Amino acid sequence: MPVRSSGFVRQGWPLAAVSFATLAAGAAQAAEHGLSGEKASFPPFDPAHFASNLFWLAVTFAVLYWLMSKIALPRIGEILEERAGTIGRDLDQAAAMQAKAEEMAQAYEKALAEARSNAQGIAQAARETGAKESDAKRHATEAELAAKLAQAEATIAKTKTAAMSNVRGLGSDVAVAIVTKLTGQAPTAAEATEAVDQALARG
Amino acid sequence: MAAGGGIDPIHQFHIAPIVELKPFGLDLSFTNTSLWMVIVLAVVSAIMIYGSSQRSVVPGRLQSLAEMTYEFVASTMTGVMGKEGLKFFPFVFSLFMFVLASNLLGLLPGSFTVTSQIIVTAALAVLVMSIVLIYGIAKHGSHFFGLFVPSGVPGWLLPFMILIEAVSFLSRPVSLSLRLFGNMLAGHIALKVFGGFVVVLLGSGAVLNYVIAPLPLLLAVALTALEVLVAVLQAYVFAILTCVYLNDALHPGH
User: Three-state SS string across A80-146, please?
Assistant: First the structure.
């Protein structure tokens, strides 16, 4: 608790002077008594020493007051004030640094969160493009396969048709030969073909 | 201490001149009292001035002591008088340290207790009361005497109350000085008496006396501890009563 004593120090000198005068007056009075007091008495009550005691008390106390009020107390007050200032400043600094650190931590958290969401986005995009690509590849392969299948089917159908027409021709020839052998009478090629067609249609 | 008679408990208060000094028919000799006043001054100055000379932010032992006494007196004063009272800080601080150092140094064997001289304590008390009067009248004028008129007292009682207040005001320096003086004197006499018992018992030659001689010694040890407490307490009481009286000068009127 710093104390500003300069006010009283300035006002205090008249007071100190008056007090000093009071003490001196008392000393003078005591000295008169002291001269008359002859018998040895209880030392603290012996007026013979009052003057000297008062005089030296006044001197030492005045010097003490002067030293305390001019040197010691202002200096200690300054020290305490300075310490309070230093502590306050250090605390402020610490608070500022803490706030800064918190801010940095927040920024870091934010960056981290951003990076995380970015990473998620990238992963998502990668996954999507991957899926799309594989889809497209699959589609292409499927289409290719379907085309091949269709081609194969067409080839099969063509071969079958060819085979069937061969079978038909062969069948009508066989039918003509069989009918001729059985009846001795050769049917016309048109009749035989028709009969074969009917037989084929029946299955 | 034990010179001449050895067990005279009053001898320790005897004042002997060291340097004779008698200007204008006044006996201002530098006595053993004066010597111990100077020692008190030196010790207090050493603690307060040398102790604070480092001006370090982290205080050493002596600086801590100086700061502790400073803050102790300052907080006591603000407790009694408020911030305003700190204009008397150097005065109360000097007074407290002077009385405290006198009381404590007086407990050293072979030393002299400055505050066991009634003229010293009376002078300090008169100094306090004159500061109260002068400051009170200078600051508040005649209003200062409102101190003697308690508020809310019926008119017919007022003369008695003023009389009582006046007597109580006038008895303040008496009680202030006698309290300190009496405590110091009585404590030192008691210590000396019990110390004297030990010497007498050991010097008597009887065997039984050798056996009981440690008892007063133990008491003297206990009393020494008590006297340390009394020395500090009386210095504190002197300072805090000074604050209370100065508070009257600052804020007269109940």
Answer: HHHHHHHHHHHHHHHHHHHHHHHHHHHHHHHHHHHHHHHHHHHHHHHHHHHHHHHHHHHHHHHHHHH
Task: Give the residue extent of every domain in chain A.
Answer: 6-99, 157-202
User: Could you identify the residue written with the tokens 């050293």?
Assistant: B108
**Predicted local distance difference test score (pLDDT) of residue A22:** 53
Question: Angle at the Cα of B109 (from B103 to B114), degrees rounded to 5?
Answer: 30
Q: Which of chain A's residues have a Cβ under 8 Å away from the Cβ of B65?
A: none
Between helix B89-105 and helix B32-45 the angle, nearest 10°, is 120
**Helices assigned H by DSSP within chain B:** 32-45, 61-81, 89-105, 118-140, 158-204, 207-212, 214-250
Tokens matching residue A134:
């594989």
Contact B91 A54 (CB under 8 A): no
Decide if B123 is inside a domain.
yes
**pLDDT digit string (tens) for B178-224?**
999 999 999 988 988 888 888 888 887 778 877 888 888 898 899 99
| B151: containing domain | 11-250
From B78, which residue of chain A is nearest by alpha-carbon distance? A1
More confident residue, A168 or B136: B136
